[in-house]
Design a protein that fits this description.
Elements: H1 3-17, E1 33-34, E2 37-38, E3 44-45, E4 56-60, E5 67-70, E6 77-83, E7 88-92, E8 96-99, E9 106-110, E10 119-121, E11 126-130, E12 134-140, E13 143-150, E14 168-172, E15 181-186, E16 196-202, E17 206-212, E18 215-221, E19 223-228, E20 238-243, E21 253-258, E22 263-265, E23 273-275, H2 277-280, E24 285-288, E25 294-297, H3 298-353, H4 367-373, E26 382-386, E27 389-394, E28 406-410
Parallel strand pairs: 3-4
Antiparallel strand pairs: 1-2, 4-5, 5-6, 6-7, 7-19, 8-16, 9-15, 10-19, 11-14, 11-16, 12-13, 12-15, 17-18, 20-21, 22-23, 24-25, 26-27, 27-28
The structure holds 2-acetamido-2-deoxy-beta-D-glucopyranose (NAG) (6 copies).
One 2-acetamido-2-deoxy-beta-D-glucopyranose binds near residues 250 and 251.
Length: about 425
């Protein structure tokens, strides 16, 4: 089982569990499903619903559930799954079946020739031979590509043991193929519970046994995986050109398309991609889940908003508080300065208007000196209030020891602010 098969399995599982509310994969006014199978464009059921005759699907309603077929006469294959993402289909492979008879020496069996079709067998297929005493080669145009042989051991069951060369063998084929032939060589009698030997080139092998009157009856089937190709790029989609890096196929090149980011729909329909609804209405982050579906991560938005809000709010608060503090400090400084200037002017005026103190003796004190001397304009030191201001009793500032009284005048307006 390779990675592609695992991915295919995952997408199969996903398809069966959650395929609601997606835009239609079929062309407008065309049937999208047949039984359990979704039929996306370029495949289509009915005229004008497919890209060309190779992609025409016939939904046979006489089965329950209805069963889709690739209806082109050169194919006529039962369709089990269509993947747009991996650009492949799985079909029920025809297989070489050799039952007990008397004519078993060599035989050749031809697979369906896909060389003229837009399909080729993917590397996800393997050759499996179920039964014993066979040697099977897979060849193309006379070239042996791979081969395996199985030995007989009738003490172990085909059904319970894996495919490791006893009653069953398996080999991978190292290239994509458009055509193959199985060359089988018989040697001894079949010694298993199976009546027949099966040789299939596919991605799996299913053997169903049911008991009937005479014993067990077995039914074998295998799903083959085919890549499908389109020749032209599609409008409104991201398409890129692939070239099959394989000599066996010649220079096949084809386009693979996908929807642009955050769009969904069918990239093989012209303008078939639409912005994902959950993303269009998403206020958080639109993310992709492992299965390729989108979801809106509101949680990240909420936490982002919280973080943004808290940091913005915190920053703003800090700025506001800082600004207010700065404003207060500046205002206080300015006020003190103004008051100081005013006070000095007043003092000077006062001293000059009264003849008591000669101009020579006039000493101008700074506001801080006076503030200190008046014990921060202590109420207890007020001698009196006059038209010019309040008079405080202070020690002589030049000779603090002498406690010489000195009058200091202050304007009422300039009471110290705390
Ligand atoms: C559906 O399948 C049945 C049985 O194989 C066949 O007889 C019939 O023609 C098919 N119908 C269509 C429409 O192909
Ligand atoms: C096929 O096998 C039978 C008996 O097993 C033998 O007689 C016959 O010659 C073989 N034919 C070929 C073409 O090998
Ligand atoms: C297995 O095969 C041998 C001969 O090939 C036969 O004698 C034996 O009975 C077989 N055993 C079973 C369980 O079929
Ligand atoms: C396989 O069978 C084809 C068709 O019968 C034949 O042309 C080719 O030579 C065979 N290849 C081998 C390796 O036996
Ligand atoms: C094997 O196949 C033959 C013919 O197809 C049949 O008659 C026989 O019953 C089968 N045997 C078993 C055990 O299925
Ligand atoms: C593939 O392309 C190359 C260059 O375009 C050319 O030389 C070569 O013959 C081509 N091969 C085939 C099988 O078309």
């Amino acid at each position: 089982m390779n990675v592609k098969s695992v991915l295919l399995l995952i997408s199969l599982l996903w398809l069966t569990t959650a395929s609601t509310a997606t835009p239609s994969m079929a062309k407008q006014n065309c049937q999208e499903r047949c039984g359990d199978v979704t039929i996306p464009y370029p495949f289509g059921i009915g005229k004008d619903c497919y890209l060309n005759e190779w992609f025409a699907v016939n939904c046979n309603d006489s089965f329950n559930p209805p069963t889709p077929y690739l209806s082109h006469p050169e194919l006529n294959l039962k369709l089990t799954f269509v993947s747009l993402a991996y650009q492949l289909v799985t079909v029920i492979s025809p297989m070489a079946v050799y039952c007990q008879d008397h004519d078993r020496n060599r035989s050749t069996w031809k697979g369906i020739d896909l060389s003229k079709t837009p399909f080729f067998y993917s590397e996800g297929n393997a050759l499996r031979v179920v039964g014993c005493a066979n040697s099977v080669l897979i060849t193309r145009q006379g070239t042996i590509l791979a081969g395996c042989s199985s030995i007989c051991d009738n003490s172990s069951s085909v059904l319970s043991n894996g495919c490791y060369g006893i009653n069953c063998c398996k080999t991978t084929v190292p290239s994509n193929l458009d055509f193959y032939i199985l060359n089988t060589t018989w040697s001894t009698n079949m010694g298993t519970e199976l009546n027949c030997t099966y040789a299939a080139f596919g991605r799996n092998f299913i053997l169903r046994g049911k008991s009937s009157g005479s014993g067990m009856e077995y039914e074998a089937s295998s799903e083959g995986e085919m890549i499908w190709m389109i020749k032209e790029s599609v409008e409104g989609s991201d398409c890129h050109k692939n070239t099959v890096p394989d000599g066996a196929l010649g220079n096949h090149s084809y386009y693979s398309c996908s929807c642009p980011a955050y769009q969904e729909g069918n990239p093989y329909l012209p303008n078939g991609c639409q912005v994902v609804e959950v993303c269009a209405n998403c206020k958080g982050r639109c993310l992709t889940r492992i299965d390729g579906r989108f979801f809106c991560d509101e949680r990240s938005l909420a936490s982002k908003f919280w973080i943004l809000g808290i940091s913005l709010g915190g920053g703003l608060l800090f700025l506001l508080l800082g600004g207010f503090w700065l404003y207060k400090v500046l205002r206080r400084r300015r006020k003190i300065k103004l008051r100081e200037q005013f006070f000095q002017q007043q003092l000077l005026q006062h001293q000059m208007s009264s003849n008591e103190i000669s101009i020579e003796n006039t000493k101008i004190f700074t506001f801080n000196e006076l503030k200190k001397a008046s014990d921060n304009f202590n109420e207890n030191r007020i001698l009196g209030r006059g038209g010019q201001g309040t008079v405080y009793k202070v020690p002589h500032l030049d000779q603090p020891n002498r406690r010489q009284m000195m009058a200091a005048s202050m304007n009422k307006l300039d009471l110290p602010m705390v």
